[in-house]
Design a protein that fits this description.
single chain; 501 residues; mainly alpha; 2 domains; 5-stranded mixed β-sheet; 20 helices; 61% helix; 4% strand; globular
Length: 501
């Protein structure tokens, strides 16, 4: 009975520590619903909940939902629980963080016997959630709910199960992850194959097995549903020009360093851990190293092969997302094992250094917005104030036009109009290009709308009337003071919301 009590006490303590580190991570990384990719996913969920929304141009977010069950699941959760979507998104964002750190604790528990090493690894991962992943335009974890975050938690659970020798149990976990984010799950499945083979086979035999079993998994990570290799159009190329991170020849030297250096570090860890008798840690490091080399070579092949240019929007370098996550986990664990030990002062300095640094980085990057954009909190961002007014005071079938580069405007901080204003809009030249890259059939409609919006800062009444005649646009978001002739209903210091007569 005493032993059972000790186990229960240990589980309670571990749960409490995971919750503490999760809360710290959430506060450090910030929370920005509707930002970046959430402008697509949140709009899709709202569309599921209220089909009357987005009667125009909804294809720019709905088509991307073909490969994921996320929007159906999120809308179903809201209907079942009657929790408002803003609170449901916050709940699942925090739950995802808890799940990721709990799984990191489980993985670290298999690789390190010292508890201080395990918890230092968890603390490092939590602090590094907003670490940019080389040149991939990814964070380790986004500052809003993303199916990639949920899939990451499931992938880490699968890795934990593989380390525990429960490979079959990992398969349904990966299948569930596949329903949320297919591309990242295929990278995760590829790593699980590497890891399972590294644990089970000596180094001189498992590469041959991996060559047969892993090639299909790795290659599949670049193939979306229904993809076919047709020559890309000029409009497709124009859309892709806005997303320079997809092209490896445009990566800066420090981005290439960020892609290669972690693999070198894992190679060194494999050699050093093996010499010191840390067999499982050594094999884990070897699996990460060869997983990285394999996928980096595939990415270079795609980049160097002209006929494969249409595969570049699948972002084959995003395998680095897992590499960076494991780098933070193992790096933190090694710091805890060899440097922090049981010193309270060292632990305090460790937590302060990394968390304060990442917090400052987020405040600088999103200086125009509140750090925690929580439900029910009035927005301080002037763009979000405009979006909130539009959501509450315009008809659901209103069709808006904005500066096609509004997402990159100073202080806008990449908050999506569709998701937050809950209204239709003409295509933009920043975020909608990602959808065009994946689905080239959208390129003609996107190109027509972007061409019609060229010269937006100089638009006058006749230009807005032309948009209304050509596309049916009847509302616009413009700077304040607005051009003459518009029927403006609301404004703040810099933005006006107006009807087109």
């Amino acid at each position: 009975m005493q032993g059972l009590s000790n186990v229960m006490d240990s589980r309670k303590r571990n749960t409490l520590l995971v919750l503490i580190f999760s809360t710290l991570s959430f506060v450090v990384m910030g929370y920005h619903p509707g930002m970046e990719d959430d402008g697509v996913y949140l709009a899709a969920v709202k569309s599921r909940l209220n089909p009357a929304l987005y009667p125009h141009n909804a294809v720019f977010f709905r088509i991307q939902m073909q490969a994921t069950f996320f929007d159906n699941w999120a809308a179903g959760f809201v209907r079942l629980t009657c929790i408002p979507i803003a609170y449901a998104e916050l709940l699942w964002q925090f739950a995802s963080i808890v799940a990721i750190l709990a799984c990191c604790r489980g993985i670290a528990g298999k690789l390190f016997k010292e508890e201080r090493a395990q918890w230092a690894g968890v603390a490092m991962v939590g602090a590094m959630f907003t670490l940019p992943v080389a040149g991939t335009a990814l964070f380790v974890v986004d500052q809003h709910l993303h199916p990639r975050t949920l899939a990451t938690a499931l992938i880490l659970l699968a890795v934990w199960l593989v380390l525990a020798g429960r490979r079959l149990a990992a398969m349904p976990v990966l299948l569930l992850s596949l329903m949320l984010h297919p591309i990242m799950t295929l990278f995760g499945a590829s790593f699980c194959v590497f890891l399972a083979t590294a644990i089970a086979q000596p180094f001189h035999t498992w590469l041959r097995i991996r060559r047969r079993a892993g090639l299909g998994i790795g290659a599949a990570a670049f193939i979306p549903l229904g993809w076919h290799l047709e020559p890309p159009s000029a409009l497709w190329h124009k859309a892709m020009e806005t997303r320079g991170y997809l092209f490896l020849d445009r990566w800066a030297w420090y981005e290439w360093l960020g892609a290669v250096a972690p693999l070198v570090l894992f190679w060194l860890l494999w050699r050093i851990a093996g010499k010191h008798g840390e067999t499982l840690l050594a094999r884990f490091a070897l699996a990460v190293f060869l997983f990285g080399v394999f996928h980096e070579l595939l990415a270079v092949i795609v980049w160097e092969t002209p006929v494969l240019v249409r595969l570049e929007p699948m972002q084959p370098m995003r395998f680095l997302h897992l590499v960076y996550l494991f780098m933070a986990l193992i790096g933190g664990s090694l710091i805890g094992k060899f440097l922090l030990r049981a010193s309270v002062g060292r632990w305090a300095a460790f937590l302060l250094l990394f968390n304060a640094g990442m917090f400052a980085s987020q405040r600088y990057q999103f200086s125009g917005s509140q750090h925690l954009e929580l439900p029910g909190r009035p927005p301080a961002n002037p763009w979000l104030q405009a979006f909130a007014w539009i959501r509450l005071n315009t008809p659901a079938d209103a069709y808006f036009a904005l500066d096609p580069y509004y997402l990159a405007a100073p202080g806008e901080d990449y908050h999506g109009f569709r998701a937050l204003a809950e209204r239709s809009q003409l295509a933009d030249a920043v975020k909608d290009t990602a959808v065009v890259g994946l689905f080239p059939a959208l390129a003609p409609a996107w190109g027509q709308q972007i061409e019609a919006e060229e010269g937006w800062p100089q638009f006058q009444l006749d230009d807005f009337e032309r948009l209304k005649k050509e596309f049916g646009v009847n509302w616009v978001v413009v700077s304040y003071p607005p051009p003459d002739g518009l029927a403006c209903r609301w404004h703040n210091a810099g933005i006006s919301v107006c009807q087109v007569p």
